[in-house]
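Lecture 7 notes: from sequence to structure.
We start with the chain below.
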Amino acid sequence: MNAVSLQPRAMVTDIPAYMQAMGRDARAASRVVAEAESGRKNTALMAIADVIIGQRGALVEVNRRDIEAGRARGLDDAMLDRLTLDDARIEAMAEGCRQVASLPDPVGEITGLAYRPSGIQVGRMRVPLGVIGIIYESRPNVTIDAAALCLKSGNATILRGGSEALHSNRALAEIIQAGLVASGLPRTAVQIVATADRAAVGELLQLSEYVDVIVPRGGKGLIERVSRESRVPVIKHLDGVCHVYIDTHADADKAFAVAVNAKTQRYGTCNTMETLLVHAERAAEMLPRLKAAYDRHGVELRGCERTRAVLPDIQAAAESDWSEEYLAPVLAVRVVDSLDAAMDHINTYGSQHTDSIITEDWSAARRFLRAVDSSSVMVNASTRFADGFEYGLGAEIGISTDKLHARGPVGLEGLTTQKYVVLGDGHVRS
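Predicted structure tokens for the same chain:
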């Protein structure tokens, strides 16, 4: 493949017609990909990974244009961080493709096959969803993650990235389509909306004739808009208000390591801790030590009255802080009297995303796992592990906090559904 293109694309003038054509092409491609053998899909994924590495320098250069334009537009540091492609993230994209290629193919798996009294056999076969529309902001790595997972699970996809990453996403789309063509699959199995016009999002949300599910990845405003306007089913989460609770039976060193990592490893992600809960019996011991670490990282603390009794120089937390997704070096801290109080706080103010307990009391841990109503619940681990790559999914299409179809990081299985299959030998119903 030649170096990824730096040339401007022709302007899209008729948005409805453009999106209708993209939908038709995706539906036609989805039928081909749904029947593709695992080997062919894996060949495409490995080819994409190789080209990503081979085009590393060109990708960084294209991405630099987006970063410079973002700075000129006044994007904040968290947004610029999500936008950036560096060597480590480019390698991670390629590795994600390789991991997805190495995963078992869920398509065609038949489970529960059993004889009925009539003599027929009834089971369920896992099949692709069809065409998946993905709307996302900032992170160009989503382009590769989404394409890899949709391809391996037998789906076609229409990708609409944010305008701030348009150059990066176009370049990545060229890489993906080169891999598809090299393996004999239609290049229209993965399409990227090549216009920054917001009207394209509205049109995509109306393509119920061609699109089977929409996955929004981005800020709350985007996800609320998609949920409100879409005529297509949506897999989503709105907020990442994640908690770490330091129990009275917590190991101090484990609690310190997890609480620091969960907040400071990255600020602009949905699985970053936004509220720290500390049992009253551990507050005097843990809070000063943690504050010293947070100070070194430049994290602003906002605490309840009991927290401020231990740390008098921090800002008082307002009621709104308990449900805030900061996506920034700001942390709300609350002292609680019991495990029940911690769980009540999480279930009241949390977003059902990811919550963790630090404890050596496994009775408390089991209660926490059962009672906290979130898509990922952890014991003695950082919330930052709530990620498809870390869960062994190879990559993720997003995280769902809904309770129907898929919940938590959505990988291959979450991008398929099931249909009944019946095996007979000339059987007729009497």
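Points to note: The first helix runs from residue 15 to 35. The CA atoms of residues 268 and 327 lie 4 Å apart.
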